[in-house]
Predict the 3D structure of the following.
Amino acid sequence: MPVRLGAALVAEFIGSFALTFIGIMAIHHAPTLAPGIGLLAVALAHGIILAVMVCATMPTSGGHINPAITLGFLITGKIKPLAAAAYIAMQLFGGIMAAVIVYAIMGGGEVGAAVVKSGTPDVAANISSGTALLCEIIATFFLAFVIWGTAADPRAAKGGGFAIGLTIAADILAVGPLTGASMNPQRSFGPTLIGSLAQGGGALWAHHWIYWVGPIIGAALAALIYNFALWPSDRERGIDPGAADVPPTQRPG
């Protein structure tokens, strides 16, 4: 049965909401855990929720849950521009609403905003902007490459959700202490918007550009390399299959 764009947008909203909500709350609770466990718990929380949400939303929207990933499909001609724009809008809205709900759950005001601020990816004090940008590019490249190889490629064994979740967890363990390992503009935008209400929260915007530019570059590089070097296509014969995680009704005709 063809997937309507409206249904795909609902799936993208729910997936994006879940990732951002769980991410903020996991980071908030991490300091209460035993020493040395916090980073592992945050990595597992992000990896698990993304794995299950990708699996849950894959049949409807393809489980992008990330504007950078959607843009990768757009620049390689795998998704219609209108569908891509709508996906990105709903992903961002999901992230904003997740931050708003965390803000409300934690009591609102300065306390609620401070919790959201603490769960917002930011650059470590001893890391330069250039280094942080490189970290986000590399981490997102790994994530996007795995998505293309395990979820988008029609030859894949359809274990994408599990592989994607493991990649997220590994990336957070590797660069989380340096940049928060966002790899996802919506994971950063909503929390930055609400977290900036906290005292000193306005400083989050100083590095916010990194969490757009880094993921977009990383995802675009992975998309282009996979599409032109590894994708099962034969341009001389006019064979170019659609991405398995872009619903057929959202693919360019």
